[in-house]
Write a structure and sequence with these properties.
The chain is 52% helix and 12% strand. The chain is globular. The protein has 2 domains: 2-167, 3-Layer(aba) Sandwich (Rossmann fold), CATH 3.40.50.720; 171-282, 6-phosphogluconate dehydrogenase C-terminal fold (Orthogonal Bundle). By secondary structure, it is α/β, with parallel strands linked by helices. The protein has an 8-stranded mixed β-sheet with strand order 3-2-1-4-5-6-7-8, sandwiched between helices.
């Protein structure tokens, strides 16, 4: 199977590592970061570095770039590939990219996906075996992808141990704003709040595991996350309003010494434990 990997980072590289366990692959890597390419080539993630973007004899093109880059590249790629090449993107926003190619003559050669996997690191050197096992792979508008190509994609994802879930691009972006994008914003802004303090060195010396786990996501790539916030702006603004209201309510209770209400709020949010436990059991 000939695969063109555009974006030799954590997600794309990790996927190739695991797919190699079950499929005979020839992978051509494309990336603006030469270090990503060198590491991937040296460690057997890719077989060669792409010299052009003609994608001749390609079975699959993995589009694993930041969402703003994918938005620009996808229409161009669909215009030059042959009729039996499948293009799959892995971006964290889906509505804009799906709309961008909704009337493209080769729309049926594209599958919009979002693997719910990853961490705060980026680059091929952070590629992980087993990253996708038991993780959800979201498919959007799969009815618009040619059936034989869709079957190939689903076979690949199932071989990784992924659980396939379908949703519309609009619902996907709304949900991601709540469970993913807001958590990154919270982490970024907590990190900024600490870094803004003059005594940040002393503060960080006292930081424990709670602080570390909360700001872990603040180490995420700005090149990846700024475009996500831009593309999902409307959904993020709505959930930010709710989040800020909760912070203001908490501050008001604190100012009024209403600690019984604060305790009730904490008890209420503790219900998340049972919700998360049930999700874990389903997995």
């Amino acid at each position: 199977m000939n695969i063109e990997l555009i974006g030799v980072g954590l997600i794309g590289s990790s996927m190739i590592l695991d797919l190699r366990k079950n499929f005979d692959l020839n992978v051509i890597g494309h990336d603006l970061n030469s270090d990503n390419l060198k590491y991937a080539l040296k460690n057997g993630i890719i077989d060669q570095v792409g010299k052009s973007k003609k994608f001749i004899n390609s079975d699959i093109v993995f589009l694993a770039t930041p969402v703003d880059v994918s938005l620009k590249l996808l229409p161009k790629i669909l215009s030059i590939i042959d009729k039996n090449t499948l293009v799959i993107d892995f971006g964290s926003t889906k509505e804009k990219i799906c709309k961008a190619v909704q009337y493209h003559s080769n729309r049926d050669l594209y599958l919009a996906t979002h693997p719910i996997a990853g961490n705060e690191f980026s680059g091929s050197k952070h590629a992980l075996n087993g990253l996708f096992k038991d993780k959800i792979q979201i498919l959007c508008e799969k009815n618009k992808t040619r059936k034989d190509l869709l079957k190939i994609a689903e076979k690949l994802f199932i071989s990784l141990g992924m659980k396939i879930k379908e949703m519309t691009p609009k619902i996907h972006d709304k949900h991601m704003a709540i469970v993913s994008h807001l958590s990154h914003i919270s982490s970024f802004m907590l990190g900024k709040t600490v870094l803004d303090k003059k005594s940040k060195i002393d503060i960080l010396d006292l930081a424990g595991s709670g602080f570390e786990s909360t700001v872990r996501l603040a180490k995420s790539s700005p090149d990846m996350w700024t475009p996500i916030f831009s593309q999902n702006k409307s959904n993020i603004l709505k959930i930010l309003d709710d989040y800020i209201k909760n912070l203001i309510d908490f501050k008001t209770e604190l100012l009024n010494d209403n600690f019984s209400q604060i305790k009730n709020q904490i008890k209420y949010t503790n219900e998340l434990k049972s919700v998360l436990d049930n999700i874990t059991k389903k997995k």
